[in-house]
Design a protein that fits this description.
heterodimer; A: alpha+beta; Aldehyde Oxidoreductase, domain 3; Aldehyde Oxidoreductase, domain 4; 3 domains; eight-stranded mixed β-sheet; five-stranded mixed β-sheet; 20 helices; 32 strands; globular; B: alpha+beta; Uridine Diphospho-n-acetylenolpyruvylglucosamine Reductase, domain 2; Uridine Diphospho-n-acetylenolpyruvylglucosamine Reductase, domain 3; Enolase-like, domain 1; five-stranded antiparallel β-sheet; four-stranded mixed β-sheet; 33% helix; binds flavin-adenine dinucleotide
Chain lengths: 805, 311
């Protein structure tokens, strides 16, 4: 293969200028003629029977055009298990339950109307932890399943289980066994752009919805079904995705507010926009799942892992989203991070009257990684072996098949571990006891920690189809228009899409225009999740570009000579002295090999004369504007070689490639206050191959920042189901200041054969091992093991106090 | 100078008969104190607006629904800083924080206040938030309060009927409540001349950089050799109001500052405060922070860590 011209080179992203200049159009900026503003009335109880809803006062507010409740709307179900109702009828199961919705001519009138809706409730006892919910006789969140069959308990009917090896024997044979129970909080995706949509029907009853989604086509399916349930069969649904201000998993489901906007638009006959305020985003959109993980790991005298036992309890909240299937991804690290001969994994997902949870970057992986990597350090200590050494001894190797049946292709984990350790100066620094820091603020100690990850890196089949496609269309001016069904949500998808087209087709990146994501123009796509965007987009582009090149070269046999002759004539007019070399263009075009590079078409065998390099735009016009003319486009649709695992048995090759990585942290712990300062972060990731170093670094920095927030600061606090900190005043994200430490990135590039240009998907990797790396560094510094995220100073101090007694 | 509502606009006067309009408020922007007092008298439910960074948050959250909002932003008497006889400084109540930080008199002569102003909110908020608003809002976590308490500032309140002055300590009555009467406007904060040669340190304990104080301490020391001649300490977010730590001051004044004294002062400070547990932190931890931060401030200000190992 010839040297790459674009892939692998730091290139500014195409969406950068408009975003930086404030010109990109987010849902917040969009309006339709005559558009109304929708607003939702949310429940004021975590669990209560709805006695009555009085909307009379709301209807009298000036400017109100529609008021909906379950009383004037059919029962409409939605959600991953269809256990959620668009408008709640008999009871509310969480604070944010939708009991009514209003559309009005301006947002103020809508807010006023919502305020004037009176709902009478009869409060019911609730369940607010999975443990509470599993107790005998606990109040039922759902008395019946969506089919109306009575339910006996609060278990969510989703099974995730894995057993491999002889666990009991392995446990008995272990020299060292260490157990622990680790918890992770609900955290908020923290998108800069809050959630919102605009729904509009045309006069034929077809629906267009501008939606903040990561799954335009699954959303289209959901909305189509919804319209059918409403009695509006055979209607077209078009989903258009505006510029997104972040999604991080929050766009993997369709949401009640979208269905309400559709209903209001239908009822009012006008476009309806619903956009959440920041407080609504916090209190009424689903946060990350909240988990408790019981883990035990064992090893032999040499530190080789003998078994791993992991039981996860997941607080689902009141309804079920796609995010409930976190355990499908948890299985990946549980069975396959480091070599473990015997594994037990089980997940129990439980309904509670808390806010229902959904997906977020990492999708279950950070939750169990927190347990595995923290506990592994403890196991290393128990065995008296350096934690780095333990990891190296159990390191995954290229080509292995793991207990879950994951077919590991390339695997750079060993190199990631070694390079991280080298950067941290690990052997020298870890020798000897932890190091007090001199000077003011005594009682400060420093420590080093590291943790690794393994994640899907070649898409991930969690749905019947795992496909993506792209349409590449060439216009008369040499521009390539790319239509891809996945979503740019800030991660840089359009950047790699652009580079991939430029590289694979042979044009300059400036000539690639990525169109908006719109179900009317883009091929079907399962969604932008599982770090699959770049992986699938580039794979699809390679195929479509190949097809285009083939067609261009085919046409060139006949059309190229005339274009070259014309170019020669132009050249001669400029330079009458010019004598062309002795080269039979027509003959060469018949039998030679064509090449397209940087937007010029030429023959490989031809002498390097400029006129023999025909501009693609001229060539395209030549084949278009003639009798029997032709315009060129190609479409590819790729379903990757991934397997939908049998999740009840925990077996199947979920992804076409696997991403690995190791992260290190150096921290300073104030033993008097429990404050933790991260002095340095190192991240070495196996990315297969670097596509665009700039966007890759952006993804890594962003993921590390989120990981830091998860580790130290972030938590959606709630009390009996009510969210206490629905704002940035008390929900703390790390600021630029908290990210002031050096963050060192390095990439291992084993050139993954399954990946486009050798690349793996790495959109989530950076978040996954950040928290355990920090916690392990804290342990190194002050000798305490922390089990619950976030590592707030109060908690650290508490642990330090216990250590003393 | 009365304009139609801002903030929450009224909705278009159209619609069904008997329809109710969206609630809003009238917005007034007087240019003299006299006019402001008149408006306050005319609109009993009126709220005063300075920078609006507390007020508008509360209105938007519907915690407050004032019938009228009276802006203090165009009243010249309320802005700026002026030297006073005797070496003091008078700060107009509606002066934005960023403006104060640009004034050499504030930054050089009242560095403890400047330290607090610099860690208050964000640059955008500091451009509009005012000193008077911070004090009148009377949050226990108001960042300007501990340093002003340590400087023994006084507040000037004026109404149509007259003028009165109070020590800042007496101004705070509880969370969100002050000695200000509804008819009064806080016009100025008056700072006495700073003690010469004072060493100062403000510490704000935060979760992340942009945050309200979980606990804060302001320490002002004047030393003669190693003897503490004057100590002024105050703490924020550890009681119903910002607190002056008089017991610690009494303990320190006249003593030779040693490690042991610093340790004891920290302990005393911890017993002098009455923090609560809320979603931001716990009472225990806040008390610990006061203890550690007072001790460390004394150690640092007295240069004890250079002399030998610090406690
Ligand atoms: C993002 C953000 C971050 C913040 N961070 C901090 C922080 O770090 N530290 C901190 O201390 N605060 C912080 N605050 C709170 C706020 O900015 C400060 O309290 C600020 O000083 C308030 O001043 P203001 O002029 O905006 O007050 P306003 O909101 O205008 O008024 C506050 C209250 O005081 C009354 N009032 C104002 N001026 C007068 C007067 N002259 N006479 C009588 N009554 C008056 C008003 O009626 C109102 O009740 C933050 C606020 C925001 C929005």
């Amino acid at each position: 293969m010839t040297a790459r011209r674009h892939i692998g080179k730091a290139t500014p992203r195409p969406d950068g200028p408009d975003k930086a200049a404030g010109r990109a159009l987010y849902i917040h900026d969009l309006a339709r003629p005559g558009m109304l503003y929708g607003k939702v009335k949310f429940s004021e109880h975590a669990h209560a029977r709805i006695r009555s809803i009085d909307t009379a006062a709301a209807e009298r507010v000036r400017g109100v055009r529609a008021v909906l409740t379950a009383r004037n709307t059919p029962e409409l179900r939605f959600g991953f298990l269809r256990d959620n109702l668009v408008l709640k009828r008999d009871k509310v199961r969480q604070f944010r339950d939708e009991v009514a919705a209003v559309a009005a001519v301006d947002p103020e009138a809508a807010a006023e109307a919502v305020d004037r809706i009176r709902v009478e409730y009869e409060p019911l006892a609730g369940v607010f932890t999975p443990e509470e919910a599993l107790r005998d006789g606990a109040p039922l969140v759902h008395e019946a399943d969506p089919q109306g069959r009575p339910r006996r308990d609060n278990r969510v009917p989703l099974r995730f289980h894995h057993e491999s090896g002889d666990l009991a024997a392995a446990e008995r044979a272990s020299r060292h066994v260490v157990e622990g129970t680790f918890s992770t909080p609900r955290i908020q995706q923290g998108c800069m752009g809050t959630a919102g949509c605009i729904a509009e029907f045309d006069r034929r009853g077809h629906l267009t919805i501008w939606a903040k989604t990561q799954i335009p086509f699954l959303a289209q399916r959901d909305f189509t079904r919804f319209l059918a349930d409403l009695g509006l069969g055979e209607r077209d649904v078009r989903v258009i995705v505006p510029t997104l201000g972040g999604a991080f998993g929050s766009g993997l489901d369709t949401h009640a507010y979208e269905y309400l906007a559709i209903l209001l638009a239908w009822k009012a006959g006008r476009a309806v926009k619903i956009v959440y305020t920041r407080e609504e985003e916090f209190a009424c959109l689903s946060p990350r799942q909240c988990t408790v993980t019981r883990i035990a790991q064992g090893c032999d005298a040499e530190g080789r892992l003998t078994f791993r036992r992991v039981d996860v309890l997941q607080d689902n909240g009141a309804y079920t989203s796609w995010g409930a299937t976190y355990p499908s991804v948890m299985m990946v690290p549980v069975t396959s991070l480091y070599r473990v001969p015997a594994v037990h994994f089980d997940a129990q997902i439980v309904y509670t009257n808390n806010t229902y949870c959904q997906a977020m970057r990492g999708y279950g992986n950070p939750e169990v990684n927190w347990a595995i990597e923290s506990n592994l350090d403890d196991l290393a200590h128990a065995a008296g072996i350096d934690p780095l050494e333990v990891r190296l001894r159990n390191c995954n190797e290229p080509g292995e098949v793991t207990p879950m049946g994951l077919k590991v292709g390339t695997c750079g984990l060993r190199e990631c571990l070694e390079r991280t350790a080298a950067r941290l100066d690990w052997p020298a620094r870890r020798a000897g006891p932890s190091k007090p820091v001199a000077g003011v603020g005594t009682g400060k100690r420093r420590g080093l920690g590291l943790a690794s990850l393994c994640h899907v890196g070649g898409s991930g089949r969690i749905y019947r189809s795992d496909a993506s496609g792209v349409v590449l269309r060439l216009d008369d001016f040499g521009f390539v228009h790319a239509h891809y069904g996945g979503v740019e949500m800030g991660q840089g998808l359009h950047s790699v899409l652009t580079l991939a087209v430029a590289e694979a087709l042979g044009v300059r990146p400036e000539k690639v225009i990525v169109g908006p994501t719109d179900t009317a123009h883009c091929p079907w796509d399962v969604g932008t999740h599982a770090s699959r965007g770049a992986f699938m987009a580039c794979t699809a582009v390679l195929r479509a570009a190949d097809e285009l090149r083939r067609r261009i070269f085919e046409l060139a046999r006949a059309a190229y000579p005339a274009e070259a002759e014309a170019a020669l004539a132009r050249h001669r007019r400029r330079d009458p002295e010019y004598r062309p070399p002795d080269f039979d263009v027509a003959e060469a075009a018949r039998s030679g090999t064509f090449e397209l590079q940087d937007g010029f078409l030429f023959l490989r065998e031809a002498p390097p004369e400029p006129w023999l390099r025909v501009e693609l735009a001229r060539f395209l016009r030549a084949v278009h504007f003639r009798e029997g003319g032709e315009m060129l486009s190609a479409e590819s649709f790729v379903d990757p070689p991934t397997q939908l695992p049998d999740f009840e048995r925990g077996f199947g090759n979920l992804s076409a490639a696997y991403a690995y990585g190791t992260q290190g942290a150096e921290v300073e712990v104030d033993e008097e206050t429990g404050e933790v300062r991260v002095l340095r972060l190192v991240a070495v990731h196996d990315v297969g191959a670097v596509l665009n170093p700039q966007t890759l670094a952006g993804q890594m920095y962003g993921a590390l920042a989120q990981g830091l927030g998860y580790a130290l600061y972030e938590e959606v606090l709630s009390e009996r189901g009510r969210i206490l900190n629905p704002d940035f005043r008390d929900y703390k994200l790390p600021t630029a200041h908290e990210l002031g430490m050096p963050i060192e990135l390095e990439f291992v590039e084993p050139d993954e054969p399954a990946g486009p240009f050798g690349a793996k998907g790495v959109g989530e990797s950076g978040l996954v091992p950040t928290a355990p790396a920090i916690a392990n560094a804290i342990h190194d510094a002050v000798g305490v093991r922390l089990y619950d995220l976030p590592l707030r100073p109060e908690r650290v101090l508490e642990a330090l106090r216990k250590r003393r007694v | 100078m009365t304009r139609a509502a801002a903030g929450v606009p009224r909705c278009a006067p159209r619609g069904k008969r008997g329809a109710v309009a969206t609630s809003g408020f009238a917005y007034h922007r007087p240019t003299t104190l006299r006019e402001a007092w008149r408006l306050l008298a005319e609109h009993p439910g009126a709220a005063l607006l300075a920078g609006g960074t507390d007020l508008l948050v509360r209105i938007r959250a519907r915690e407050l629904q004032p019938s009228a909002v009276v802006s203090l932003r165009s009243i010249p008497e309320l802005a700026g800083a002026a030297a006073e006889r005797g070496g003091g400084l008078r700060l107009g109540a509606a002066t934005p924080v960023a403006d104060l930080l640009r004034r050499a008199t504030v930054v050089r002569r009242y560095p403890l206040l400047a330290q607090a102003l610099r860690v208050m909110a964000s640059p955008q908020i500091r451009n509009v938030a005012t000193l008077g608003g911070n004090l009148c809002n009377a949050s226990p976590c108001a960042d300007t309060a501990p340093p002003l308490l340590a400087y023994e500032a006084r507040v000037e309140l004026r109404s149509a009927r007259g003028r009165r002055e109070l020590p800042l300590e007496e101004f705070f009555r509880g969370p969100g409540t002050t000695a200000r009467r509804a008819s009064e406007i806080l016009t100025a904060v008056r700072l006495p001349a700073p003690p010469p040669g004072a060493r100062v340190l403000f510490h704000k304990q935060r979760r992340v950089h942009l945050d309200l104080a979980l606990a804060s301490v302001a320490v002002l020391l004047r030393l003669q050799g190693t003897t503490c001649r004057r100590a002024r300490l105050a703490a924020g977010s550890v009681g119903p109001t910002p607190l002056r730590l008089r017991a610690v001051e009494r303990f320190l004044e006249g003593r030779i500052l040693t490690e042991e004294v610093a340790v004891e002062a920290g302990r005393l400070a911890a017993t002098a405060v009455s923090p609560i547990t809320d979603l931001r932190s716990t009472a225990d931890w806040r008390r610990r922070i006061v203890e550690v931060r007072v001790r460390r401030a004394l150690v640092e200000l007295a240069g004890l860590e250079r002399a030998g190992g610090a406690p």
